[in-house]
Amino acid sequence: MKLLVCISKAPDTTAKISFSADNKEFNSAGVQYILNPYDEWYSLVRALELVEAQGGTVTVVNVGPAENDTLIRKALAIGANDAVRIDAQPLSAMFVAKQIAAYAKEQNFDAIFCGKETIDYNGAEVGPMLAEYLDLPFLSFANHLEFDGGKAKVSRDIGDGTEVVEVEMPFVLSAAKDLAEQRIPNMMGIMKAKQKPLQVVAPVDFQDKVKVTTYELPPAKTAVKLIDPENMDELVRLLHEEAKVI
Question: Which of 13, 75, 175, 230 would be a feasible disulfide site paired with 43, CB 3.0-4.6 Å?
Fold first, then answer.
């Protein structure tokens, strides 16, 4: 079994977010980056579990500059066999999907995994775009996955229920919470990661159709109002007059 896991870089959730003076670029100064949790905790770990049970290899792929190598090595320390970095700035979800598709097209992977979304953009776009470029089935927001021969059985939440589907390999899947449990790389994994292959490949030409016009921060949160538990009339008034449904 040959699996590909797409990994991305995201700002740590505690990072202070700001933009350039003209609000067209993210200000990365002083920002600590991490592996996107949906890619690391669920997508990568489930791929590793399947290979450990049934045999095979797990390759991780990232679109980004050389500074991403440290985070890619973390994925190798967790257990991936090898890694590929496509040497380009990830300008948009479409650009990233095109680059990964160009690499994966001739590699004959049995399945391609990605997180359901990144925690910075929350777009959930790379998975379906990648499947479209490769002309493969796409299964979104999977929270349970089992392989049986040349097929996979996937479960996902739908409203108040659960949907279970079967799909023949190859396919593209996006991982949601509960697909696996986070693994912390141990010292042996960290040492082995230094020796594992990390291939750098050039990007393919692509005319990106997406352009950032502006960024903006959400409105600042208002101050918390504390209501005396004996003053229910004031609470009711505030709920009617000031509370906003989001």
Answer: 175
Biggest CA–CA distance in the chain, Å, is 69
4 CB neighbour count, 10 Å cutoff: 25
CA angle 17, 95, 124 (to 5 degrees): 60
- The single residue listed with the structure tokens 């600042």 is 220
pLDDT in tens, 173-195: 999 999 999 999 999 999 999 99
To the question of pTM greater than 0.85 for the whole model, the response is yes
| 8-12-15 Cα angle (round to 5) | 135
What is the pLDDT at residue 243?
77
- Residue 7: Cβ-neighbour burial (10 angstroms; 0-12, 13-18, 19+): buried
Domain spans, the chain: 2-217
- Measure the CA–CA gap between 58 and 48, rounded to whole angstroms: 7
Q: What dotted CATH number matches 2-217? A: 3.40.50.620
Tell me the residue length of the chain.
246
> CA 119, CA 122: separation in Å to the nearest integer?
5
Long-range CB pairs of 192-196, under 8 A, 24+ apart, other chains included: 192/76, 192/77, 193/73, 193/74, 193/76, 193/77, 194/73, 196/76, 196/80, 196/81, 196/82, 196/83
Residues 6+ apart with CB under 8 A from 41: 180, 181, 182, 183
Question: Is it true that the peptide bond before 219 is cis, omega within 30 degrees of 0?
Answer: no
H runs (alpha helix) in the chain: 37, 45-54, 69-78, 93-104, 126-134, 187-193, 232-241
